[in-house]
Design brief:
This protein is mainly alpha-helical. It has one domain: Formate dehydrogenase/DMSO reductase domain (Formate dehydrogenase/DMSO reductase fold). About 70% of the residues lie in helices and about 0% in strands. Helix 1 crosses helix 11 and helix 10 packs antiparallel against helix 11. The longest helix is centred in the C-terminal third of the chain and has 30 residues. It starts with about 20 loop residues before the first helix and ends in a 10-residue tail after the last helix.
Length: about 325
């Protein structure tokens, strides 16, 4: 785990505590976003929507590759020993979340590329004509398409959970020391992905379906956040102090206003009205959801680094 810890420190806390900057939250957000996009795209493939001309499941794979690569680059920038990352692939450690994550990421790229090959974009087939023949062979085999869809859903779920497990494995940080963090990040990633695909989808059916799905994800996210906080508040004194960082401490304003209020509650109200035809669909709610998912990672990562078993932060 030491390979991912930055050498930057925050003198306001303690020079012995390593503080991650923007790179890790961005990596976790983009990883969760891509995980959700893989699950959505895989579901659409499983349902046979690749036959539709305007379906988003044929544009998401290459976009996912780009976003995931940006996230990996952010992680690379935060590495203390950047030029030795390849050693992660020289072994597999079952007890190490980083080892699991490295191999999951290695499988995610082929799954995304297989999805993209079902119907490659015209600009790509014009440069590589052989892709047309390969695409026709894959597209005419429904069992193969469904297998690719299932693989994307499974690997997307594993990637989404991993982004939370990566933090929960740090037992020295009480705020992260929760088995529910993986589920929270998976649900948040699904919510952000549904909102993002809702913005870029050209198919009206998919837009409405994703708006309804996002409402379910946002509702689940509120419940899981509640369970996460209750778990901390019902544990040791150090865990209770860690929870107070979000509830009433220095991170509370951002948590309550930007994560809960603007990132979940308001979009949930607006999208609920939209799917019930009370108001028109607008891009405002999906944009708020995506931003809320990003801010959630920043709050959890930064607050988690302040929480400590030796109580180096003041009580609130």
């Amino acid at each position: 785990m030491n390979e991912i810890v930055s050498t930057r420190t925050n003198p306001m806390i303690d020079p012995a505590i390593h503080i991650w900057g923007w790179e890790i939250p961005v990596y976790l957000f983009l990883g969760g976003l891509v995980a959700g996009m893989m699950m959505i795209s895989g579901y659409f493939l499983f349902r046979g929507r690749q036959k539709e001309m305007a379906t988003s499941c044929l544009t998401l794979p290459l976009l996912s590759v780009v976003l995931l690569s940006l996230g990996m680059f952010a992680l690379f920038l935060d590495l203390a020993h950047r030029w030795y990352f390849w050693r992660m692939y020289m072994t597999f450690q079952p007890a190490s979340p980083m080892s699991w994550g490295s191999w999951i990421l290695l499988l995610v790229y082929p799954a995304l590329l297989a999805n993209a090959l079902i119907r490659p974009p015209a600009w790509l087939t014009a440069r590589i004509p052989a892709l047309v023949t390969l695409s026709e062979r894959i597209g005419t085999r429904s069992a193969t398409v469904k297998f690719i869809g299932i693989a994307n859903m499974l690997l997307g779920a594993m990637l989404g959970v991993y982004t939370g497990v990566l933090l929960s494995a740090f037992g020295a940080r009480p705020l992260w020391n929760s088995s529910i963090l993986g589920l929270l990040f998976l649900t948040s990633g699904l919510s952000s992905a549904a909102a993002f695909v809702h913005l870029v989808a050209r198919d009206e059916f998919e837009q409405k379906l994703l708006a309804k799905a996002d409402n379910a994800f946002l509702t689940a996210e509120i419940v899981i956040i509640g369970m996460f906080l209750i778990g901390l508040l019902s544990s040791t004194a150090v865990h209770i102090e860690a929870a107070q960082l979000l509830l009433s401490g220095p991170f509370a304003p951002v948590f309550w206003v930007f994560v809960i209020g603007l990132g979940i509650v308001i979009p949930l109200i607006v999208q609920s009205l939209a799917v019930n035809h009370k108001v028109a669909h607008t891009p405002v709610a999906p944009i708020l959801v995506v931003l809320g998912g990003l801010i959630l990672r920043f709050v959890i990562v930064q607050a988690g680094q302040v929480s400590h078993w030796t109580r180096l932060f003041p009580s609130h």
